[in-house]
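Invent a record, attention on tokens:
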Amino acid sequence: MDNPGRGGVPAAIGPARLFEEIAVYVQKNNQFGIQCQSRGAPECPQHGELCDSEEEAMEWVEEECWIPTGEGFICHECNSWHMRNLVSHRRDMVQEEVEEKEKDDEPTLDLEVGIDDQSG
């Protein structure tokens, strides 16, 4: 039976090894960097600092606290960009709900005419 490590990950694998398996590496001039999974923010660096080995690139990403997603890593710029968009999206959703409620609260002309015809 495997010896469980932190977070239920077997100690033989460990969290760092797990992250290495999901990282997407960029290789330029015999140097390695880890690619940002999102690349959505205008100021996204596209990949982490180029290092001499994949292990050093992984250490750099961990030291810079890039966010592991289970499918790769997201840089801070993209994370902030996604959070700002999420706030904006939620604000738009709330505004739409308010407008729908206001629309539902307005009496319709047909209903008012029908009531007037019944009373006279």
